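Narrative of activities, Objective 1.

The group set out to show that a structural description can be obtained from nothing but a protein's sequence at a throughput compatible with the screening campaign. Below is one input-output pair from the validation batch, recorded exactly as produced.
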Amino acid sequence: MSPCLKPEILATLVPMDLRLLLPIIISSCLLTCTKAEFNPTYQVNEEFAHEVQSFFEEASSRGISVDTTNLILDFDESLSNVTCGECNSFNNAGTQRRVGINPNLHCWDNQFEKEALIFHELGHCLLGRVHVSDTLPNGEPKSLMVSSNVSLYSPCKYVFGQVIDCNNVHKRDYYIDELFASETPVPTWAYE
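Output recorded for this entry:
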């Protein structure tokens, strides 16, 4: 419960002879009941600075404004054994946005997968995106906001003996476009 009372309630509780002090009490109450000013922090672990800067550049190149002053991104030992990354808020105003990355899991094998993980978490924190489980016509995830998949546009891990073309780097443009604009048209490779 708030420590301040509404003036009309306060007036009924205060004896008549003390009502002369009522304006002083109300003024004091108003001064002490104001919310503290929110001062966002920007602090990104050097390990992820390149990916965060790339996210800001991708947003800017699409004419999308994102808050570049309110973000803490660092390793987080408290994440569960199955969580690679986690955002504490979904673009909530007045909240310090934090992304934690699990240092105890091997969550990426290359720069593309690392970027996908960071972009996914920034999609939550800075764009307000939620997980998307929809698929494209070929069965692949529709969005980078899919849960638990950072290899959507990564290169092959095992080239030898591979019957199909496993290089997905050409899919990056679509997944980044869709991250910033969920109505992005289905790409031609999704019909193959």
